[in-house]
Amino acid sequence: MAALLIGCQEKPQIDILIKNINIVDIEGDSILNSHYVLIRQDTIFAIGDEILASQYNPAETIDGEGKFLMPGLWDNHVHFGGAGYIDENVQLLPLYLAFGVTTVRDASGDISLEVLKWRDEINERKRIGPKILTSGPKIEGIESIWPGDLEVSSSDELDKALDSLEILKVDFVKITDNTMKPALFMEAIKKATARGWSVSGHIPAALTLDQVSKAGQKTVEHLGYMLRASTPKESEISAGRASGKLTSIEANAIQMETLDDSVAMANFRQLASQGTGVVPTLLISYNIAYLDENEFEKDTILNYLGPMLKESYQWRIQRMATDTPEDRQNRKDGFEAAARLLPMIQESGMKIIAGTDAGYLNTYDYPGLAIHLELQKFVEYGLTPREALIASVINGPGYFGMEKEFGAVKVGKSANLLLLNSNP
Length: 424
Ligand SMILES: [Zn+2]
Description:
single chain; TIM Barrel; binds zinc ion
């Protein structure tokens, strides 16, 4: 009787078995052939061979023959926004998944409460969408150009703003400097870091990259700022900007005339040693610089976006409508000068974190598709495909201290995975 009972005992249940799959080991730079990956709920439960797999009863079996398995993509800089068309932002959630983006880092907008609600609903499996990590409203000065910011003009207001971000349980803090004074900007980095957040942001013209890095800023958002640390005149230029002696156009001209790779490399190494990385958002800079040479309006992916979101692209197109040929050339020169820094940044040890700026306002920067184009651009400008993948799926989680859960196809890690037809 006992023997009979043992014989009838059911095998332990798992949710998904992927048979015969080639695992892309990004960190180890190798392909692990013909493995069996067992998934239970949201987690990779076991990895092994056919004998191991035969001990379990999968609810679903996927034949991985000839295919490749890697962690889902992270787009580490997107924007949900547009208070008048929240529904069009909701439509982006499945669109991200359709392009293999299983995590997005939302770098603020004007619909933060909605985004926080979606984040929680997705975590609770009540809504389909990528995992969302969001800054909530970003910190700015008074009357900044962006709607939805937490505007502060004193230490006291800054403390209250940080209190409110704690109540919202935001995942990181974003700070920009449209109207925020440099001293308060520095204070904001220090205070947000002290409260345990990773801090990201732009770089005020009156500060050097080293200053914001030493204050604790964990990423420089947008590659263009790295040009500032690529000239021996950085301190002089930032002092000139602080005192008002230099306009931004004059500062830019001095910077472009004095670029020096050896200075850049030494500064990047210093930033790396202080734990500061960069989110290049190369794609949006490219789109803006080369707007006149592309026919983005013919892109078929536009059919997947809502009308108001597409309309928001005009904000920048109209701002650029009065550009002179010289302005257009300057944009291209600035883009190319910044893009060629990528391999040096990589070599310096600074973490490159792949994010696209996709979302409302950001012209022809398509949610979902954008990260593929961003990684392509990384490779075009000198990173290896492996380094590009690391920037998305390993450095993304690293920013949040989530490397235990994400970044590889390994036992115990999240089962946010991509099944690919070819080796990426
Ligand atoms: Zn952005």
